[in-house]
Write a structure and sequence with these properties.
alpha/beta, about 40% helix
Length: about 170
């Protein structure tokens, strides 16, 4: 269920993507498709949402997005390199120009001392003219770590809101 705040964020995101003429792809692990679902709650989203990947398992990250198994083995699924690879993989495996990827520990189990419940890595990929490239032919990537408090539902909702708001801010940066 999309909150009013999330709905407003999605409406603003839709306007920004339409202004640029860009399509969005999502690559989601801990949110299980909630970002894409929030986007499709808005009528007409097919004009700017190209597709969503729900890659909850490590195998899905590898098979659907091309995330190198070595990255997952070396850094863990909840890490900057994997989030970055998910964002770039979403672009490579879609017709979108923009992507957002999330991977984290929503809880209540699965956390560790290094990656407690509420740990979420984000990555956003945009066309390269938006900033410096990170080895991708056409993408500029921003990666960020956040720690959210609360139960599983609160962590997942905070993840959706942060993913959308940060993408909107990146699209509005000159």
């Amino acid at each position: 269920m999309t909150t009013q705040t999330t709905q407003t964020d999605v409406e603003r995101l839709a306007q920004a993507l339409l202004q640029h003429g860009w399509m969005l792809a999502t690559a989601e692990s801990c949110t299980g498709g909630m970002i894409a679902a929030s986007c499709t709650d808005l009528a007409g989203s097919s004009q700017w949402l190209e597709r969503g990947f729900v890659t909850y398992s490590n195998e899905a990250k590898h098979e659907m997005l091309g995330v190198d198994n070595t990255l997952i083995a070396q850094h863990g699924a909840v890490s900057a390199p994997v989030a970055q690879a998910m964002a770039l993989g979403a672009l490579r495996h879609s017709r979108a120009q923009v992507s957002v990827a999330v991977t984290g520990v929503a809880g209540p189990t699965g956390g560790s001392a290094e990656k407690p419940v509420g740990t979420v890595w984000f990555s956003w990929a945009l066309p390269s003219d938006a900033g410096p490239t990170l080895g991708a032919e056409t993408a500029w990537v921003k990666t960020e770590l956040m720690h959210f408090a609360g139960d599983r539902a609160a962590v997942r909702e905070a993840t959706v809101q942060h993913a959308l708001r940060t993408l909107l801010a990146l699209l509005q940066t000159p």
